Amino acid sequence: MSSVDAHVVVLGAGHAGGTLVALLRQYGFAGPITMVGDEPLAPYQRPPLSKAWLKGEADGDSLALKPLEFYAENQIDFRPNISAVSLKRAEKTVALSDGSTLSYDILVIATGMRPNKLPLPGADLAGVLSLRSAADAEQLKGHLKPGHHIAIIGGGYIGLEVAASARALGAEATVFEREPRILSRSACEVLSTFFTDYHRARGVTFELGAHIERLVGEAGKISGVKMADGRVIPADAVLVGVGGKPNDEIAADAGLDTARGIVVDLEARTSDPSIFAIGDCSHRPMPHYDRMFGPESVPSALEQAKQVAAAITGRPAPTPEVPWNWSDQYDLKLQIAGLPFDADHILVRGDPASGKFAIFHLKGDQVQSVEAVNAPPEYMMGRQLIGNRKPVNLDRLADPSVSMKEVAA
């Protein structure tokens, strides 16, 4: 695998693929590398798309993982506007959308996810948008201005970040969530209530437990959201944020193991030893929790890029990381460490009304995950406690006058 003659082909030029090709050169891999991506841009950061990009604080150059010249200077054959069509494992070839065929010695699938479609009448109207790429963000940006009303369907982190950006730009925002509370799949009720109240205080309207009948339009363009109770809520644009689906079809069609993504091991290697899968298209082991999961996060993609770069270059495998993620909304920084698998109770440290607190998800006296709002010490030490599986004194953890360093000692 560490042969300098091996040809590494990376399908996907997102955060995972872009990081991997840079790491391969950093780790001394001298063989040929080809990276194909279905967008016109070189690999770029996606988290700012729902925040800095919408507010005009970032552009393509500032978000690029590497300057475009980097790829040529490092003999990385980057091919934009191309996607993979099919994979023939026996021949070790990939057919591409431009009609060409690539041969590989090592294949890395980093094809990410695509947004779920809204299964409602009117979902094909002009002005019904999703947010996955810079092109999507640019289209959305045109609707976030005073006098415009954005309807956001789905109360997850992306939708809430867009709502915060909309309010900062003077647009009206309504969040529609079919569950009784926002963040129902990803956060506890304490955090959901906190963010709902915080957004409401800044002018965001919520339709919780929402039953949407259809999207309505005029002359082919979105004009509103019709509810099952007969109300029509006006909208100049609709952002659909109802989750996504891993782009794993090429792997499944080629006979690789899939289960809510391409199944990989701790090296990010698939059921074919010559093929790896990284990022949102993969279903990976979570060693801290002894199970498989698809974290759908940039940190997870970066960790897997390191795993593959180490495996290809013969380096020791990196130490498994505690999963982590973050969300910025208004002046709030939410930092999340771990996953609340098997937690049997929560503990709130600090007062949510102060805008600075942390929620610990515990299994007995062990921290499974922590959600920290404007509370970096709680996040950092909580992440450490998850990693070392050290039991904590719950009374000391609940007392903000006891430092997190003392809690973790």
UniProtKB/TrEMBL annotation:
Keywords: FAD, Flavoprotein, Oxidoreductase. The keyword Lipid metabolism does not apply. Residues 324-407 form the Reductase C-terminal domain. GO terms for molecular function: oxidoreductase activity, acting on NAD(P)H. The keyword Ligase does not apply. GO terms for cellular component: cytoplasm. InterPro entries: FAD-oxidoreductase/Apoptosis, FAD/NAD-bd_sf, FAD/NAD-binding_dom, FAD/NAD-linked_Rdtase_dimer_sf, Reductase_C. Its cofactor is FAD. Residues 7-305 form the FAD/NAD(P)-binding domain. This is FAD-dependent oxidoreductase. The lineage of its organism: Bacteria, Pseudomonadati, Pseudomonadota, Alphaproteobacteria, Caulobacterales.
